[in-house]
Amino acid sequence: MDYNATAPLLGRAQGVMISAMSELGNPSSVHQEGQKARRIVNLARDQVAQLSGGQSAHVTFTSGATEAASHLLTPNYKMGRSALKISKLYISAVEHPCVLSGGRFDKDDIVILPTDVNGLIDLAALEAELVNHDDTLGLAMLALQAVNNETGVIQPIAKAIKIAQTHKAITVIDAVQAFGKIPYDIEDIGADFTFMSAHKIGGPKGVGAIVSRGEVLMPEPLINGGGHEKGHRAGTENIIGIAGFGAACVQAHENLAHSLALGQKRDDLEAQMFEITSDLVIHGGAVERIPNTVCFTLPGMKSETLQIAFDMEGVAASSGSACSSGKVGESHVLVAMGTDANIGALRVSIGVETSDEDLASFLKAFEKINLRRIKQIRKPQNDDGVAA
Question: How many CB atoms lie within 10 A of CB 114?
């Protein structure tokens, strides 16, 4: 029940990876063995491009989304051979930590934009900031997630990009949680750059990609060395992981209709949770979300307590991002939404492979945990407000 943290490795991806292990060549070598490896990488590049709506020539492979974010979030770009300065980075308060950290920007050059109670970026605040942006110091950059990793809330990225483009800002979209789950087309959306991660769609861990709309505007490389990935990212390509990523993209493309249909399962699950307890709180439930995600609070239970309780029942779920060294506790997303972050929330996320038996097991555990919560709340308390 934790697909947003990582999806199980797909059989198709595993098979392609095993086959790629037998290829001995370096993709940069000109001999036949090298060119066999190069064809594996190029096929995967085509497959990533197809799922993202981009072009194969505009796909750069990375070690994952975090590296991709650090690669793109830099004040130093080039327009062809000419240096281009980015003076300010504008991000929302609910971004994934890899974007919230600001990449290679100085902290003083990062502007954090507020969100509403549903976690949607305040477009009026974005407009106001960009109106006041001083272009004489450099261009503006907007980095925004397509889908929030904790709540599943879908951001109005098309509207935000339109505002940004009006003010000549460069746009970077974190599509990690959108990629393969809902339709996403970089050309239709108009983003300058999009990045994603393989293991969120059933590919291997440790592989990601950047898709750009062109090749003229490009960031200063994060990793320098040889001319790999057209000079954008040095280092011999991980052909085994890249092959698995490509295969996962093919299956995600085929399964997109099934992924969208998860919305009914998600709605049924929430309805059954409300039948068990009426004081359940669903975060982001009032706005459009990806079909597979439920982020909820049980009043009176902290997120870490809730997560441990589910884990003891054999159910894997997350409290916030899975990229925080296993930490549980306060969520910056809930803080931005004006929620009591001391209580926290638990995220349940499902996938095409999630069975009815999995959902039934979760509900059984949920009911059991909720009964313990109610008993705890009803216990008499001493003068300090602690249950006796």
Answer: 14
**Which residues are within 8 A (CB) of 81 and not within 5 positions of it... i.e. 6 or more apart?**
none
CA–CA separation, 122 vs 115, rounded Å?
5
The residue with tokens 């009911």 is 367
CB-CB contact of 186 with 53 (8 Å): yes
- Per-residue pLDDT at 331: 86
Rg (CA), the chain: 22
Q: State the Cα–Cα distance between residues 60 and 62, nearest whole angstrom.
A: 7
Among all chains, which residue has been given the structure tokens 């929030």? 148
Which residue, 230, 279, 269, 231, is CA-closest to 350?
A: 269
Cα separation, 352 vs 338, whole angstroms: 32
Q: Look at the block and give the residue holding tokens 């969208």.
A: 260
Which residue stretches of 167-236 are H helix?
186-189
Could you give the residue ranges of the DSSP H alpha helices within the chain? 11-20, 32-52, 65-72, 97-100, 123-131, 157-166, 186-189, 239-254, 256-276, 303-312, 332-336, 356-378
The neighbour count for residue 173, using CB atoms within 10 Å, is 27
pLDDT above 60 for 323? no
Output the pTM of the full model: 0.92
Quick: pLDDT tens for 89-115: 999 999 999 999 999 999 999 999 999
What are residue 194's phi and psi, to 5 degrees?
Answer: -135, 145
The token duo for 193 is: 């750059």
Note if 249 is an active site residue: no
Q: What is the pLDDT of residue 32?
A: 87
Model pLDDT for residues 31-64, shown as the tens digit of each residue: 988 899 899 999 999 999 999 999 999 999 999 9
Spatial distance between the Cα atoms of 280 and 217, rounded to a whole number of angstroms = 47
Residues 6+ apart with CB under 8 A from 198: 64, 204, 205, 206, 207, 208, 209, 241, 244, 245, 248
C-alpha 36, offset from chain centre: 32
Compute the distance between CA of residue 154 and CA of residue 284 in angstroms, rounded to an integer: 9
What are the residues whose beta carbons fall under 8 Å from the beta carbon of 250, sequence distance 6 or more? 12, 47, 50, 51
